[in-house]
Amino acid sequence: MSQLRALKEQEEHRRDQILADRLNRQSLQEKRIVTQLMQIRKEKDNIRENRILRQKQYEKEREREFVLALEREALEAKRKAVVEEILFKAKQDKRKQLLQERARQNYEKHYQICHSIILQMVDLSTKIGEYRELTQCAIPVKMIRDWKLLFLFNKPLYEDSGLVTATEEEEEKGEGEREKGGEGESVSLQSTSSVDDKNAEADDILDDADLQEYLQVTNEWSSDITECPHPPNMVLSHIVYRLIELVKPPQPPSNPPSLPKFYLKGSFVGLPFTGKTSSLKYINETLGVLILSPNDLVIKAIEVYKSELTERYTSGPASLSSVEEEEEGGEGEGAKADSVKEEEGAEENEEKDAEDSKKQSPFE
Predict the structure, then answer these.
(1) Which site from 2, 94, 99, 318 is most exposed, i.e. has the minimal number of CB atoms within 10 Å?
(2) Cα 55 from Cα 210, distance rounded (Å)
(3) Helix 181-216 and helix 141-152: axis angle, to 10°?
(4) Residue 150 CB burial class (10 angstroms; 0-12, 13-18, ≥19)
(5) Cα(107)–Cα(112) distance, rounded to whole angstroms?
(6) Pairwise CA distance, residues 297 & 224, whole Å
C-alpha cells in the first residue's frame, strides 16, 4: 500500500511538473506573442508615421514642381510673346517695304507711261511743225495716218541713227575702262542691233496697215462712184442680162392645181375649263383663223331677236298688230307646210310598199 501511495505521489508530482512546465511554456509563448504584437504595433505606427511624412514630403515636392512648372510656362509664354512681337514687327516692316516698293514701281510705271506719251506727243507735234515749215502746205492723209499709227503703237517717229547723248557716252566710257575692248565692241553692236529692231518693227506695223487697207478696200484703195460716175451702157447691160438668162434660165410657171379651192375646217373639243377659248383666241390673233363658237352664235342670235322685239314694241301699236299678223301668218304657213310634208311622207311610204311587194318572191 505504501508503494502504491508512493507511486501515486510520484505520478501526481510528475503530473504537476508536467503541468507546471506546460504552463511555463505557454506563458513564455504568450509573452513572446505579446512582445511580437507590441513590436508589430510599433512597426505599424512607425510605418503610418513614415507614410504621413512621406505624403507630406510628396505634397511639398508636388507643390514645388507645380510652382516651377507655372514659372516655366510663364517664362515660355513671355518668350513666345516676345518672339511673336518681333516676328510681327518684322512682318510689318516687310509689308511696309513691299508696299513702298509696289508704290515706287507703280509710280515708275505710270511715270514711264506718261513720259513716253508726252515724248510721243512732242515728237508728233514737232514732226508736223517741221513738215509745215519745210513744205508750207498741208500734210498728206497717208502720212498723217502713218504718224498716228506709230503714235498709237508707241514707236519712234524719228529714225534712230544710233547716236547717244553725253551722259550715255560717259557711261559707255566708264564701262569701257572697266571692261576689255572686245566686250565694248559687243555692247556697241547690241545697241545698233536694238535700233535696227525698232526701225524694223515700225516698218512692219506700217506694212501691215497698208495690207489691211488693200484687203478691206479702204482709204486710198476705195472707189467712190460719186466722184467719177460712169454713164449707163445699155448694150453692156443687155449682154449681161442675156448671159444671166442663158446661165440661169427662168423657171416656167407651175401648173395650177386640179383640185378646186376648199377651206379647211376643224373642231376644237375638250373638257370644260381646259383652256379652249383662250387657245382659240390666241390662234385667231396669231394666224387669223375664223373661229365659230356655238355658245357665242346662240347668244348673238338671242340678242338680235331681243333687239328686234324691243324695236317692234317701242315703235307703236301698229307694229304690234303687224307682229301678231306675222305670227299668225307664220303659224298658218307652218300648218300648210306640215300638211304638205305629211302628204309627201304618205306618198313616199306607198312607193316603198310597192317596191317591197315587187321584190318579194312568189314562194312566200
Answers:
(1) 2
(2) 104
(3) 120
(4) buried
(5) 8
(6) 66
Q: How far apart are CA 15 and CA 82, in angstroms?
A: 97
Phi, psi of 228 (to 5 degrees): -130, 75
C-alpha cell at position 221: 484703195
Cα separation of 102 and 110, whole Å?
12
Task: State the cell numbers at 223.
Answer: 472707189
Q: Is the CB of residue 164 less than 8 Å from the CB of residue 172?
A: yes
pLDDT class of 122 with cuts at 50, 70, 90: confident
Dihedral angle computed from the Cα positions of residues 317, 319, 322 and 324, in that order, rounded to the nearest 10 degrees: -70
Nearest to 321, CA basis, from 311, 310, 313, 333? 313
Which amino acid type is present at position 8? K
Whether residue 173 is predicted with pLDDT greater than 70 in this model: the reply is: no
What per-residue string of b and e applies to 185-215 under the rule 16 or more CB within 10 Å gives b?
Answer: eeeeeeeeeebeeeeeebeebbeebbeebee
Those residues whose C-beta lies under 8 Å from the C-beta of residue 214, and which sit 6 or more positions away, are 221
Q: Using CA atoms, how far apart are residues 27 and 334, in angstroms rounded to an integer? A: 162
| 255 grid coordinates | 401648173
Give the three cell numbers for residue 1.
Answer: 500500500
pLDDT tens for residues 8-29? Answer: 878 888 888 787 777 777 777 7
Kindly list the domain boundaries of the chain, sorted by start residue.
1-102, 157-221
Longest CA–CA separation in the chain, Å: 202
Cell 510628396 belongs to residue: 58
Provide the grid cell at 280: 382659240
Q: Mean per-residue pLDDT for 246-272?
A: 78
Question: What's the pLDDT score for residue 190?
Answer: 55
Task: Determine the Cα–Cα distance for residues 157 and 143; give it in Å rounded to an integer.
Answer: 11
Cα radius of gyration (the chain): 68
In this prediction the pTM is: 0.34
Strand, helix or coil at 49?
helix
511554456: which residue's cell?
Answer: 25
The highest-confidence range among 12-26, 71-85, 159-173, 292-306, by mean pLDDT, is 71-85
